[in-house]
Amino acid sequence: MAKNISLGKKLTAEFVGTLLFVFVGAGSVVATQFLSPNYPSLIVIAFANGLGLALAISVALDVSGGHINPAVTIAAWFSKMISTYEAACYIVAQVLGAVVAGALIVSLFPTAAGSAVYYGTPTLSHSTNILQGIGLEAIMTFFLVFVIFETIVNKRAPRLGGLMAGLTVVADVLAGGVFTGAAMNPARAIGPAIASMHFANWYVYWIGPIVGAVIAALIYNYVTSK
User: Fold this and answer.
1) For residue 143, which of 61, 70, 215, 43 has the smallest C-alpha distance?
2) pTM (whole model) above 0.90
């Protein structure tokens, strides 16, 4: 990422990238509910979220670093890759992008399908308690952030854009999507939640991803230290 890029351009890239990711990810939940109300397709949702993130990271990568996730930004801040002020601005831009995406979904998608799944807001299953939800989100986000650091941040890694991060999201959604919605991203969760005014267990999707991201940063910093 070029150092002479203005903060405004970086924030715009984070805003648009997060809007793209949340619109595709949350929109796929509503779309599958519309097509098959009794059995929404987890596979379709997994690949939609993975593809959406891969595209979002790839388009923002050379401008902002392609964080597209407050948990990634916090991990980068924890690793001293980004200043406190810049990290705070990134998170605001990401949340705003997610909220706009949620508002577009609420405005444009069929109400019956959207309201049935809270317009793509991640929710805990009836068999998943709060601690299990936080643990699952932490583990899935750990995998995501570690892959991002090793395949994007690590300068020795091959330049694959957001492909590996997208595939990690696919894998995580297939493994944990039915239990927590597999957000792995506070913005992915809070955007549709604000738009639909559905805030059940909202804190799970902040605590879990942030804990997982910080642990990933710690391990990445350890294994790459000289």
Assistant:
1) 215
2) yes
